[in-house]
Every structure is written in C-alpha cells, then in structure tokens.
Specification:
The complex is a heterodimer of chains A (137) and B (390).
Chain A lengths: L9 H9 L4 E5 L5 E2 L14 E5 L3 E10 L12 E8 L4 E6 L12 E7 L12 E6 L4
Chain B lengths: L6 E8 L10 H15 L5 H4 L2 E5 L11 H8 L6 E5 L5 H15 L4 E8 L6 H9 L14 H16 L3 H15 L13 H5 L3 E4 L1 E2 L9 E8 L4 H4 L4 E10 L14 H14 L8 E3 L5 H10 L8 H6 L10 E2 L4 H4 L7 H13 L13 E8 L4 E9 L1
Parallel strand pairs in B: 2-3, 2-4, 9-10, 9-11
Antiparallel strand pairs in B: 1-7, 1-8, 4-7, 5-6, 8-12, 11-12
Helix pairs in contact in B: 1-3, 7-11
The chains are: A mainly beta (137), B alpha/beta (390).
Chain lengths: 137, 390
C-alpha cells in the first residue's frame, strides 16, 4: 500500500522536527527544493512534490545578538540568531546555542539540533530546531 | 527630458510627529487633513474629493481596525469611498500608488491619500512584538527575531561583505538628527554627537539605540489630481512623474542577498525609467531610514553611489544638505519619527515642501526633482516615487 505523503505545510515541517528530522519539499517536475515546504512549487506551479530530508550541517551566513526581545524571549536575552545555509543550499533562520556570544562569526560551521520539550506559553506549542557548533566551543 | 506627469499633488498636510498623549489616531489624521485643506483654499473637500486611501499597519496599537471610514468621519468626508492599505511600514506609500491608479483610471479626479499610526501609548515590548508582525512568523518571529534583529543581520552581512563600519552607520543618525533639528514637526529635534550614537545601548548587535528609528505618533496626507486639473487648485503643484513598486519574500532567510533590498532597487529602476531621470538628477530624497543600515543600503539600491560604497557616501558628507543629494532633510524616520502607517505620505509631504520652497531652515536651494523610497517590513514591499516641481 502506498502511503499518502504528509501535506506540504509548515505544520508538517514542525511535526518532522518533533521526529528530529529537518525536511523540505522537492518539486518532482522542475527539481526546485522548497524550504519551508509550500503546497505548490512557486517556480513551475506543480503540485507533484516529495519530501526530502535536509543535511544537518551548514555555514552561518549572517547573524545578530538580540538584546531587546519580544516578551516571549525576554528570559533568554542576550541571544544569538542567524541565517544558516545548509549543505545543498537550503537556508533557515534559527537561534545559535552552545557557544559564547563573542565567538559567533560569519562563515562558521554549525549543525542543527532539536529541542522537542521547550515551548513558549503563548505561541503554538511546536517543537524547535536550533543551531550549535559542530564541536563544543 | 522628463515625461508627462502621472498625477499632481495640489496640497499636503502632516500632524506634529512625536509622543502625542491623549489623542487617538483619527484625531492626528484630522490635524494632517486640516493643514491640507487650509493650504488649498480652492479645494472644496466635500465636493471635490472622490476617494480616499489611508495606510495603517496595525489594529493592535489602538484596538481599532476599519481605518478608512474612521479617518474620513473625523475629517468631514463621509460618505466618500474609503480604502485602507497595508504594507507594514510602507502602508501609505502603497496608498499613494492606489491614489495614482484611481486618478489615472478616470474613476476619481481628486483623491486624498494618507496614513496614520498611534504607537507611543504602548509599552516598548508590545510595540516590538506588533512591529515584528511585519516579518515572517513561523520561522523568524518564532526564533526570537525582532525588526531591529532582522536589519541587524543586513548590517552584519554588509559589514562582512563591504567593510561597512558601525561608525558609518552612526553617522547616518548624526546627519538625520542634524536635519531633524531644523524641522519643527520632527519628534526629536536635537543634534546628537557621533560619540553619543556609538555609546548608546545595544538593541540588536551591531545596531544600537541610535541606529533605530523612533516609536512615534503621527499622521500625514496629500491631495492628488489629474495634471490638467492641478492649476484649478494651486499655482504651485508638485508632479509625480515616475512610480514603482515591488514585492519580495516575507522571510529574509529565503533570499540570496542580504546586503540589498531588492524591492527598493526594482521600484527605483521602474520609477527612474518612467520619469526619464537618472539618480544624478535627484536633488532631494526621503529614503526609508528605519535603521541606519537601511539608509546606507538605500544609497546603493537607488544608484546614488556604487554597490558597497554606501558607508563611504555618508562618511564623505555626500547625503547631507549641500552634498550630492540631500537625503532625509525632514530628519527621516530616525529623527522626525516613524509612525509606521504615516511614513510614506510624510515622505511625500517633505518632498512637497522642498519642491515648493516651503522647507524653512532645511530648504535645499533650487530643489527641482525629488524622490521618496518607502519600504515595508524587511523589504517585502518597496515603493519609489519621483517628483518634479510644477
């Protein structure tokens, strides 16, 4: 029996995070990789998509250190957030943990990890992904 | 040679920008509209104005949506048709675009275009949260990103790629406060020193307090008509001769380039082409300096300087009054203030004053061609308009 793929939605993306998987959608018609997944390929409008697991390692493209945060994050300040380019080219924003803030540098290697327990009170109780150095720093 | 105008501005008004305690947004809008009506005695607002487009970003600030009729009720324009436009911090520039469409289509010969936002009665943490709604929720806000945080990532990328410095960014703040000190309607009418800007507290590294625009209350409006009707209302119209708009991804992380706001570049190219003018023809410009880095990026996106040279452009004084192009003579979002929904038409108001010789101490001598550059969110919306003295 062929199982129906999960819908290509943001909710599915976070359901995969709960399973410690980083997943994007691949367009079977034009080959475009959709991260986050979208219900229709924005390049060729095809809805013929498949799930593809993304590599967990990547490089930091840019970052900031947040000192003034929304109230949901006030207990965490100051914290680092950046945009990471994963191997094979997908890009995701995320917090950067497990490193002194002054050691964060553009171009550094980072890897994805998962935090399936912690959630804020007000926002949807999704699990989280975040980035950390490949080796403890 | 510039082209035939698209539409003409025959009047303009702006409330005092600042912390306007005890007032609702609609009352600020009445302050702006009343100036526009008084400035143009030949205009019979009830009879002449056939449609209104009002920009506002958020219901959360005043627990009030349905901006169009609310604003018109307070300025005596009921039952005129009213539309609210929303493009985050670019809300009222998109209202200008709608006004242009309405006049050019022939549906309305005279339209009011404006914007309003009442923000200062809210706690800073709440304002930070509401403004962040203009950027992606499930990935960016979800990961603790704020508006300053997103522009900070643009700054970090610009610093790494082009060697732009924190000091060059701070110089944008110093310049805009210098200009704003000459604007009696600006929120913060005071000069600041480079040392003060550099030593202010960090909001989202590398951006500090003085790299950020102000949380401000305010409203603004302009009256647009067909060029052939302009002289019926005023001897000194200002023509809009080029206009462009573009959209980009809601998430910064989806883009290939973090050092440019593509919407500013595309809208600018469209507007320059339509107007038949080049960047070097612009005498005075109001650009979207929501953060100091955004003004540096705007110099590059609008072709005032080469790519990557925006930091040097401010350092060499090229964007101050008397420089190559006078940028943010009003004080900009940085010193005049940034009541987000009102900013687009407030930029047009400043250009209207400059091109009609009414800008007082900050007047740019002989200003003939002006430009406004208004960005929504982290550049998901961008509008550029080009203006010519009538």
């Amino acid at each position: 029996m062929v199982e129906e793929p999960r819908p290509f939605t943001i909710e599915s993306f976070y359901n995969f995070i709960k399973e410690r998987k980083l997943m994007g959608a691949k367009c079977n018609k034009c080959g475009e990789l959709l991260v986050p997944p979208k219900p229709m390929c924005p390049e060729c409008f095809s809805k013929d998509l498949s799930w593809k697991e993304l590599p967990k390692n990547g490089k930091l493209l840019t970052y900031t250190i947040i000192h003034v945060s929304p109230k949901q994050f006030q207990a965490l300040t100051p914290y680092a957030v950046g945009i990471v380019e994963l191997e094979e080219g997908a890009q995701l924003p995320g917090t950067i943990k497990g490193i002194a803030l002054d050691k964060v540098k553009v171009g550094m290697d980072l890897t994805v990890d998962f935090d399936t327990e912690q959630a804020t009170d007000e926002w949807p109780q999704w699990p989280r992904y975040y980035f950390k150095p490949m080796h403890y720093m | 040679m510039t082209r035939k105008p698209l539409v003409s501005i025959v009047s303009a008004g702006m409330s005092k920008f600042g912390k306007r305690e005890g007032l609702y947004g609609r009352e600020l809008f009445a302050e702006a509209a009343s100036e526009a009506f008084e400035r143009c005695p030949n205009l019979d607002p009830k009879k002449d104005i056939k449609a209104a487009f009002i920009g506002m970003m958020g219901e959360s600030f005043e627990h009030q949506g349905h901006t169009g009729p609310t604003a018109l009720d307070w300025v005596g324009l009921l039952p005129t048709q009213a539309f609210r436009t929303e493009g985050a911090c670019g809300s009222s520039a998109t209202a200008i675009r709608c006004g242009i469409f309405a006049v050019l289509s022939g549906f309305a010969d005279v339209v009011m275009v404006g914007g309003v936002e009442k923000m200062t009665h809210r706690a800073t943490a709440d304002v930070t949260e509401y403004l962040a709604m203009a950027c992606d929720f499930p990935f960016e806000q979800w990961n603790g990103l704020t508006f300053p945080g997103l522009f900070a990532m643009v700054a970090t990328a610009h610093m790494y790629k082009y060697g732009t410095t924190e000091e060059q960014m701070a110089l944008v703040a110093v310049k805009n406060h210098h200009h704003g000190a000459m604007n009696p309607k600006a929120h913060m009418q005071k000069e600041i020193s480079l040392e003060k800007a550099m030593s202010s507290r960090v909001i989202a590294w590398p951006l500090k307090l003085y790299d950020c625009s102000l949380i401000t209350d305010g409203a603004s409006c302009i009256i647009l008509t067909k060029p052939e009707l302009a002289k019926k209302f005023t001897d000194t119209p200002v023509h809009i001769i080029g206009s462009g708009q573009a959209s980009d991804t809601i998430g910064l992380y989806e883009r290939k380039e973090f050092t440019t706001l593509k919407v500013g570049k595309l809208a600018g190219q469209e507007a320059y082409k339509m107007a038949g003018v080049a960047p070097s023809d612009i005498d005075v410009a109001e650009v979207h300096d929501c953060f100091t880095i955004a003004e540096i990026v705007a110099y590059e996106d609008l072709g005032f300087c080469e790519l990557g040279k925006g930091g040097r452009f401010i350092e060499n004084g090229q964007s101050q009054i008397g420089g190559k192009v006078a940028v943010c003579t009003s004080g900009g979002l940085k010193s005049k203030g940034h009541p987000v929904g009102a900013t687009g038409t407030a930029q047009a108001y400043e250009i209207y004053l400059q091109l009609t010789g009414q800008a007082g101490k900050r007047q740019v001598d002989g200003a003939k061609i002006g430009l406004t550059h208004n960005v929504g969110g982290l550049g998901a919306t961008g509008v550029v308009n080009i203006y010519r003295r009538g």
